[in-house]
Request: fold
Amino acid sequence: MSSVAATPPAAAAALAHPRRPFTLTVYRWELRKLVSQKRTYLGLALVMILPLFFVIFQNVHQRHDHADNIFAAQITQSGLATPVLMLLFLSVFLLPVVAALVAGDIFANEDGNGTFKTILTRSVDRGQVFAAKALAAMTYAALAVFAAATVATVAGVASWGFHSVRTFSGTIVSAPEALLLVFAINITYLIALFTVASIGVLLSAATRNSAAAVVGTIGIVILLFIVAEIPGLEGIKPYLLTEQFQAWQGLLRTPTDWGPIGHSAWVCALYAVPALIAGYLVLLRRDVAGG
Amino acid sequence: MSDEAPPVRARGLVKRYKEVLAVDHIDLNVDHGDVYGFLGPNGAGKTTTLRMALGLITPTEGSVQLFGRDPLRDGARALQGVAGFVEAPRFYPYLTARKNLELLAALDGDGASGRIDEVLATVELSPRAGHKVGGYSHGMRQRLGIAAALLRRPQLLILDEPATGLDPAGMRDMRELIRRLAGEGITVLLSSHQLPEVQELCDRVAIVDSGRVVYEGALADLRRQGGAGYRLHTTDDTRALEVARAQPGVEHVIDAHPPAHGLVFQAQERDVGELSLALAAAGIGILALTPELATLEDLFFRLTEGGNGANPQALEVAV
Reply:
């Protein structure tokens, strides 16, 4: 260790105005850390395998009796019905779980590895670290949504063709328009999923424990589902986060029903903004005493 | 960074965890070019103090400034020119050493990524740079911690027990590296349990006990305040013991063990002269009379354990 010349200290002038990293740099490294962890792929694999299984199962059984949903009824008529149907299934629980898996771990993982002190003694502020991590958790949630949608679309189209579909209003839309709608509904769904991720981020920063944060986030989602079913509480139902998971369906009506989407946006903001502010304050004020 | 501002200046630092007072009004003064030893038994509050210095934890009271900047007020800017680690350096186990350094260099900015090969070579980890840190030994992680610190080209290096877990060769190399870095003008704040290491490397020390600084100042001053001791070999140590015990100003006269090592005592220089005359008058020949300064270990235990049989007045320390 002693045989090689050590780095000479920087000139004081050079240290007076060092180039500090941008938050984008911290964000890029958060993504690289996610890419390097096996657990990252677990959630992605799950949301990609399920649409594949669904298409294979439909092909094997050749069932056409899904009369309860207009997209289920036309599943074998157009491959573009598959991503809509899959979003309908996955949006309720599986995608929130997958988003929670990474969001709940994003800060707690640093506590687990004892690496908070490592990154917080470099040239980045806690606010930059928080922003980068929150963005990374949301990026992962978006990736999970679009990975599921892509697999569902490709498998659906490969099995049943690139044909027009009928929307909830009974209007038939062309295949390219339907593809655009598939993209749009997934984008719209992200509003609610980012809110779940925001809650996960808060719990991750506050609990410093991955399992507690992930289970806590999923627990909140389950709790809100239960609250929605309690008789007498119908009045608060429109303001429950879980009710916003299906707001994207407004895009599948003609004319587009923007009401539930707009409502969902501000209801989600009521959950997400305080969660992110609280998470930021927790990280800003906490003592990094472990590791 | 102000060139004039001292690397570390802490005033009245207090950290309380509910009923536990971990740090109790600690003042620290680390000046440019110091190799400053921070000593204390386990649980004395050393690591908590270093964490407060690095802005990782918030003091309950008091403040700390690094080159005139407060980590709490100025955030990452206060750590400009500062590097190091507290407790064991920690890295992402699923990344290679090189990737870990690339990440940290990205978080440092200022061209740190261009120094990765150099710092890996400095700590002799180049051949293992492509291996995941999860498979690294403790010693390798310590060395990687030093490499990560050097990436920042620090003016102040804060090291918490850097030699812990290293084999003797690793400890020797670590000391050599610290000495060389200090020689290049880097101020070093070194927390250590290794008293010989501190004695060898540091010019100034702070000794903490139960969250309080019980000594801060030059190591040489501390050793002087520890009381000048002398070792005496005579032609008749048994009679010399009687003469010495009867001599005013000569204190704590004891037979050294084994007896062939003569006598040891404490006295002022003038009283030593009187003793040598008294021995001559008694017909006892002096074979050797050598001054012995107290070791850091002696002083450390006297300060932190209240004596071990030593003269408690012998160490009038500045607190």
